[in-house]
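Ticket opened by: R.M.
Priority: normal
Category: complex prediction / small molecule

The reporter submitted a protein together with alpha-D-glucopyranuronic acid and asked that the result be attached to this ticket for the collaborator who will pick it up next week. Submitted input follows.
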Amino acid sequence: MKKLFSFLFVAALLIPSMGAVAQQKYGAKPLEFESLKEWKKVHRPAIMDFFLTDVYGHYPQKQVTPRFELLEQSDKALGGKAIRKQVAIHLDGMPTPILLLIYQPAGVKGKVPAFVGMNFKGNHQINIDPEIIISANAPTGKDLGTDAPRGAASSRWPLEEIVGAGYAVATIYRGDVDPDHDDGFKNGIHPLFYRAGQTKPDAEEWGTIGAWAWGLSRVMDYLEQDKSIDHKRVAVIGHSRLGKTALWAGATDERFAIAISNDSGCGGAALSARKVGETVAKINKSFPHWFCDNYNKYNDNEEALLVDQQGLIALIAPRPVYVASATEDTWADPEGEFLSALYASPVYELYGKKGLAVSSMPKPEQPSIEGYVGYHIRTGKHDITLYDWQQYIKFANQHFGR
Ligand code: GCU
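Result attached by the on-call engineer:
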């Protein structure tokens, strides 16, 4: 009898912990659950914890409150069609501010919705506008950081089209938040959050993508207090590494009403387990600063991932999400991006929303935008183009009731 009791006692101790060890893996499959309650109570928290602990890293506990300073404003931007605002986002301890550049439709009564995204090489590259302030952190060199490249990235930021559709565009330069190289996390925002004696983030703490996403949330802080912007209708958008960032910002900050990933690939929308194009091992080797150190556990070991990148998209539910690919962008694995969108869709259905409206990959230039999960593949290379933006505007119009 005594033996039986001690056996039962040991078994009772073991069973729950065995359960924890053999934690259910969601894999690279559709995320299908019994109920919304189960998703919210069990699976969403587990998936969020996985992305926080093992992929992008936890945000620090410490709060750093931004201070906003309007540096410049004009009602005559874009030939009189837009209001331009430039705002310094000051963070205590940062030597230089994050420069926020906003264009919004002129002559509009009431608040306007907005697209928020980071740019690659400095605000002054998004348009030829000579008034755009060049960030102290923008790349320098013969033709960078000077007047020469003004507007060099303007094809990626079709302002006339976006502002013409009634939207504001708010952008910051990634390097104002954290430089995009492996500097041991010495120069960006990470040091502002270190504990006494800490010199770099711990293995489960944020890398550069996490820091960039945090920066996008500070833009949202600003927009919330700008009375001319409808902060309830803000879409966060990004291309490529900044598309990975936009998805993570959308997953972690519910104030973003829509998240848009343009050609985000590995560590963004694409499923890792397919190992097509860039892989976890390759991305961690080339960009060791993007993710948290724990992500290295999955180098050539994708089977061990608790959930694939469809989990990231599902974290955004029930808010609308858009995933886009380009035919020649094989490095980003267009099919893997599509499948992620598809596999996240059942979670949207739990909320009573249509997920992706198609079940197989559409042909180029046949966007699927009826559901809460949008997708298109565009002919051409890795880039964000006017065509891509036109689909995002339609998608946003539909969800913002415009
Ligand atoms: C590289 C990288 C990708 C990334 C891309 C970009 O190609 O391997 O992961 O998305 O740069 O940001 O343009």
